[in-house]
Design brief:
The complex is a heterodimer of chains A (412) and B (420). With 412 residues, chain A is α/β, with parallel strands linked by helices. Chain A has two domains: 208 residues, Periplasmic binding protein-like II (D-Maltodextrin-Binding Protein, domain 2), CATH 3.40.190; 193 residues, Periplasmic binding protein-like II (D-Maltodextrin-Binding Protein, domain 2), CATH 3.40.190. Chain A is 45% helix and 14% strand. In chain A, helix 2 links the parallel strand 1 and strand 2. In chain A, helix 2 runs antiparallel to helix 12 and helix 11 crosses helix 12. The longest helix of chain A is centred in the first third of the chain and has 22 residues. The model of chain A has no long low-confidence stretch (mean pLDDT 90). In chain B, the strands form two sheets. Chain B has a two-stranded antiparallel ribbon with strand order 1-2. In chain B, strand 1 and strand 2 form a beta hairpin. The N terminus of chain B is likely disordered. Helix content of chain B is 69%, strand content 2%. Chain B has 420 residues and is mostly helical. The chains are: A alpha/beta (412), B mainly alpha (420). At the A-B interface, helix 3, helix 14 and helix 15 of A face helix 5 of B.
């Protein structure tokens, strides 16, 4: 076993011990069986299960946590359907903030301001607040997209898009089997940072949805040029394509989110990467000097309205410990390769260079609102972006169409 | 000679029948052993062993209770029909009862419930009105849950753009068609037109290629069994695997289809990124999938046509085309018409292939009516407007119902059955 691994294990063990000591201070609760629907990946869910065990052994011996993994859209749909059916809702929901507004609209999750001390989460609580009430407790800060590169193919992260394009072409020229750059081409979440970089946004100063400003047109033009003029991205590429090619070393640089870092650090899952080859960086700067700004938020735990009594007490106790106890927060952050959501825990760049790089990328992002109307933007932009990326629509027409589509969406 | 016939007889320890029979016996044992080993090792596809045991402890007694309960109920029903009602058909009624109950539970009740939903205002924002557990916002009016007014609005929204309960009109005063999804091409008339094209093209190729292959297979050719097995392979593979495999093969850069095109000097095509080629790709896959059905059906039909008809026609000087038109087609009609009816209905409703391969994209350009309905009700752009979705599904049902009635009555495909 390598010395560095021993150190990491030792640190985790110490943190776990610290967590045990701190949870011992809490009141005892009756044994409870909790169910959590998690949008997180398997390896992160294993960390969550381990953390729960530490909490349960001390605070509520005999308690169990059943983790049901669900993909983002499946979780959103299933939770709404279970709420409508009136049964089958879990005790906890762990996922990104973008569905929180939808769940609040449907009356599925409960406000948490009176159950938690929300003042201890200074970074991203706004992403889980609707109408002034808090509906999600952050387990971490982030969920941000950033530039990721394979150090064995690219020596240093490009600082501008001009550099990136040149680097990508050079990589492919040197290794014809390797694609220089790839990302989830048709997904608006990957597109929106460009809009922000060109000075645009989803809402204007009056709160109206504006999807046809010059910044939107410029952003459509930019991504279209990346594909058809510069030809530095694959002809077709979705999330799985970019992710798989990067893991096997067939792509030198990609844009992806912090949720994938753990997977990329694992040499078994990502043979071409691992801690030695993975590099993270903020988005390269555009010609106007601005960096594309990804939406930032994090992962949040919400509690459905059906949870009450002992279940609620146990859920609140566990989530409070998981998200506020410094040892627990650090163990969870280290285990999932994510950034902590409380000020008491900071990332040491020397000990965790990858997390430090992720934090630097996070600093270039902008907070994502939890407004349910945001879905009208995602849903209206997606088909237009697909049309732009198949060269069957001009950027100006795409922006105009997206605006009309969003207005019709908002009518309902 | 005797020894050889013994070895080939069904009683031989290595006969095909015995191997198949033992295979059938051993398969469940192997599955049981695999599950046992997986459970004892603690993990099974991400489920914990305790989870599997808990599920089995719940499911197995439930099945036993249901079976015993059904038997008891059937016995009581028989006693009631026989002793109280004193009908001479007590036994057939009793035996039919489970099927009737299943039909009512799984066909009639969902159908009625679907119609009821079309009379509701059920959408995400009104979920709390229809749920016993969800939190109602103070300003949410839940006084009327079902009303004809809701039905009128739901059915209107399938065709027209509705704002504040009124149909939106353009500058000429004409009603604007409503977008069922997000693009201007997602209106009902465009989706219906695309569905009709999709159905006609698919059924045309199914029938023609299926017929051609059936006629080839009906000839005396060598290795017929091998060809037949190869042709029915699409049937043997689970649908979702077929769809996802073809999706990969149509990838512009890494797919086999473009590799083949480029090997022959052609230019790669963005199959799934281009609206036209994406539509071609899904049609190709569905044609590939549908051919075995026709080939098997029509081959059975061709083999039932007596060779005497062809011999007599040949003696009268009929050409091959005349024999096909005047003998083959009329005698295949009792098979062909129901097959086409079923194929039209299946193709019209073929949502799984499109959802798996393109999910209606790019730019919602490969959506047909049912995938439009699916995406409007449950897809990524869904607003969970179940009242509207139910109205939409009823419209699709009516279209298919009318088609089936008109097609069956005008084609005379079921004439033989009715005449019996």
């Amino acid at each position: 076993m390598k010395f560095s691994k021993l150190v990491v294990l030792l640190v985790l063990a110490l943190l776990a011990m610290g967590g045990v000591v701190s949870v011992m201070a809490q009141d005892q609760l009756p044994a409870t069986n909790l169910v959590i629907w998690s949008q997180d990946g398997d390896s992160n869910n294993e960390v969550l299960a381990a953390q729960f065990q530490i909490w349960a052994d001390t605070v509520a011996p005999g308690s169990t946590l059943e983790i049901v993994q669900k993909e983002t859209e499946v979780l959103r749909t299933d939770l709404q359907n279970a709420g409508l059916a009136g049964s089958g809702l879990p005790d906890l929901v762990l996922g990104p903030n973008d569905a929180i507004g939808v769940f609040v609209d449907a009356g599925i999750i409960q406000p948490l301001d009176e159950l938690f001390d929300v003042s201890v989460y200074p970074f991203n609580l706004g992403a889980a607040q609707v109408g002034g009430a808090t509906y999600g407790i952050p387990t971490n800060a982030g969920n941000h997209l950033m530039l990721m590169y394979n150090k064995s193919l690219v020596e240093a992260a490009p600082d501008t898009w001009v550099d990136l394009i040149a680097t990508a072409k050079a990589v492919t020229e040197a290794n014809p089997e390797v694609q220089g750059f790839a990302y989830n081409l048709n997904e608006p979440f990957w597109f929106l940072p460009f809009v922000h970089g060109f000075g645009g946004s989803t809402y204007d100063a009056d709160g109206n949805m504006v999807l046809d400003s010059q910044a939107w047109i410029d952003a459509y033009q930019f991504v279209q040029d990346l594909k058809f003029t510069e030809q530095v991205v694959p002809e077709e590429c979705d999330y799985a394509c970019a992710n798989d090619l990067f893991k096997e070393g067939s792509v030198a640089m990609i844009i992806n989110g912090d949720w994938a870092i753990g997977e990329y650090l694992d040499a078994e899952q990502s043979p071409a990467l691992g801690p030695d080859n993975l590099g993270l960086a903020p988005w390269p700067a555009l010609a106007n000097g601005n960096r594309p700004m990804p939406f930032t938020a994090g992962k949040f735990i919400s509690i459905p309205v059906t949870v009450e009594g002992d279940q609620l007490a146990a859920a609140v106790s566990f989530v409070t410990w998981l998200t506020t106890d410094p040892s627990a927060v650090e163990a969870f952050a280290l285990g999932t390769s994510r950034l902590p959501a409380i000020a008491e825990v900071t990332v040491d760049a020397a000990e965790n260079p990858i997390l430090a790089e992720s934090a630097a990328a996070l600093a270039t992002g902008m907070g994502m609102p939890a407004d349910a109307t945001l879905r009208c933007m995602w849903d209206s932009v997606r088909p237009q972006l697909e049309a732009v990326m198949s060269n069957s629509m001009t950027p100006a027409d795409a922006a105009e169409e997206a605006q009309i589509s969003a207005e019709i969406c908002l009518e309902s | 000679m005797a020894a050889s016939s013994t070895a080939l007889s069904p009683r031989s320890p290595f006969s095909l029948q015995r191997i198949l029979r033992w295979g059938l016996y051993l398969t469940p044992v192997a599955i049981f052993l695999a599950i046992f080993l997986a459970v004892s090792s603690g993990e099974f596809s991400g489920l914990t062993s305790q989870g599997i045991i808990d599920t089995l402890l719940f499911v197995v007694p439930l099945i036993i209770v249901l079976l015993v309960g059904a038997l008891v109920l059937q016995f009581l029903l028989f006693q009631f029909l026989d002793k109280v009602v004193k009908t001479p058909h007590a036994m057939p009624y009793t035996l039919l009862a489970p099927a009737v109950v299943a039909l009512v539970l799984f066909m009639v009740y969902p159908l009625i419930f679907n119609v009821l939903l079309a009379f509701s205002d059920l959408r995400r924002e009104t979920f709390p009105c229809y749920s016993s557990v969800l939190t109602r916002a103070p300003d949410l009016d839940c006084s009327v849950l079902y009303s004809p007014q809701y039905a009128v609005e739901n059915f209107t929204k399938v065709f027209f753009r509705v704002r504040d309960g009124e149909i939106v009109r353009d500058e000429n005063g004409n009603p604007e068609f409503g977008r069922l999804l997000r693009t201007r091409d997602s209106t009902f008339p465009i989706l219906l037109a695309r569905t009709i094209i999709w159905t006609l093209v698919n059924v045309f190729f199914h029938v023609t290629i299926g017929m051609a292959l059936a006629m080839i297979m009906n000839q005396k050719i060598r290795f017929k069994g091998i060809y037949r097995s190869l042709i029915v392979i699409p049937w043997a593979i689970p649908g979702i695997i077929v769809y996802l495999t073809w999706k990969q093969e149509f990838h512009a850069q890494y797919g086999f289809v473009n590799n083949l095109i480029e090997a022959f000097g052609g230019q790669a095509i963005s199959w799934l990124d281009d609206p036209f080629y994406a539509f071609v790709a899904i049609i190709f896959v569905n044609v590939w999938l549908g051919i075995p059905f026709y080939m098997v059906m029509l081959l059975g039909g061709l083999q039932s046509i007596s060779a005497e008809y062809y011999e007599a026609a040949q003696m009268d000087g009929a050409s091959a085309l005349q024999r096909f038109r005047n003998i083959t087609i009329p005698l295949l009609r009792p098979i062909l018409i129901p097959a086409i009816t079923l194929d039209v209905i299946w193709t019209f409703n073929k949502a799984d292939l499109i959802v798996a391969m393109t999910n209606g994209g790019p730019s919602e350009s490969t959506n047909i009516l049912v995938t439009g309905l699916y995406n409007a009700a449950f897809g990524t752009a869904a607003t969970l407007e179940f009242g509207f979705a139910s109205a939409f599904s009823i419209i699709i049902f009516i279209i298919l119902f009318l088609f089936a009635i008109i097609w069956i009555t005008t084609s005379g495909g079921l004439k033989e059955i009715y005449d019996r």
